[in-house]
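for the writeup, i need someone to sanity check this before i put it in the appendix. the sequnce is what the collaborator sent (i think, or maybe the updated version? ugh). structure was predicted straight from it, no edits. if anything looks off just tell me and ill rerun, i have time this weekend
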Amino acid sequence: MKIIVVGTSNSVIGNKGFIQSLRLQHEVIQLSCGRVPFFYHLKTLIKNRELVENCDLLILDHYINDVNVYRGILSDEYQHLCEEFYRFLSTLNVNIVNVFFPVIGLRDYKFNSFYDTVLELCRLNSISVIDLNELNFSKGHFKDKIHLSHRTSYFFGIILGGVLASHEYRLKKNRPSGGECKNNPFSIVNIPEIVGNSTEFKNDLIHIEYADIEKDFCIKCDIKQKLLGIGYFRLKGAEGSSACIINDKHKIAFSGYGYFFEALDFDVHGDVVVSPFFSETGCLDTLMTRGKVDGPFKYLYLVDLLFYNGERLEYIAANRMVFDLDVSNLIELSNVFNRFYAFPSLSAKSIDLIRDVAVRMEVEDTGIARELMLLASIARPNGPFIKKKLEEYNLLTQ
């Protein structure tokens, strides 16, 4: 099955967790970015709609950052825009599942009701849900309050991969169709196209083009257009810090390394003028009260902007089936897995033996052959023969 993932930090961590193990059984395209609002999901899906609709399944990872940060800082308009986002999702001609990763003490968060809001938006727009908050995780399953450990995430991917393999025929047979976005009130500006310079950056998580901003640039907009978010890039090892000034009024610094798409916590309507801020000294605030950044401020790398014109999305929702994807055995199996997990210490000879027994079993019982080869793939995830045989067994056991 061809799967595309658009998520936040649990999905970024999942590169060595659930996404890595999903890839044992499925083709997975990763388009996730940590520490972002749903504006990132929206922008990414608008940009990549054709790619998304050529997949069999879209996995979202959305709600945690909104409960943890964004709904508390941004106005009630953020909830309205989230409703528009889910209407846009309903137009996508692809099966969708939103994975609600668990949060320790979820109901203690001030804006925990936004969790219920997103669940309801999924229901209203026929988006399938896997809510891991319904499972009885212990603190040992977590990296911190809002992130599963790599090991728990990896095992979740094994369970999910098997569940999706068992549903593959139904998912493909009941592919959504007829969805259409008639007028999209959201628009994206690719900054390299505006300023005329572009540098490519690519790794196993992102592929972007950023512009090195050395002087002011202006984007002419109708007064109804509101700037929602800004995509920036900070290169690890680059000298100095990064900051800009928007409309000669809002001076902001950027934190973190890599690509981020951050929401604005102030209003900007109409024309947008972005100026690089260069200074040997100073200390500036970041967006979304993430802290302060000290100078010297030496560079500004920008990627994209997201605007909203204030109108309501006109759309036709795709004909869509909601799927019940049961991963309720995750905790029980994860606990067993954690107690007896010893694959990293297996010798090459032991892995070869598991692999060879799987091959000998393929005529007698393909199901057992697949399970043994799956164990071999956990111990040796990059083995080409193991990958090839596992793909064969997955096809035979569908």
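The first helix runs from residue 9 to 13. The chain has a mean pLDDT of 93.
thx in advance!!
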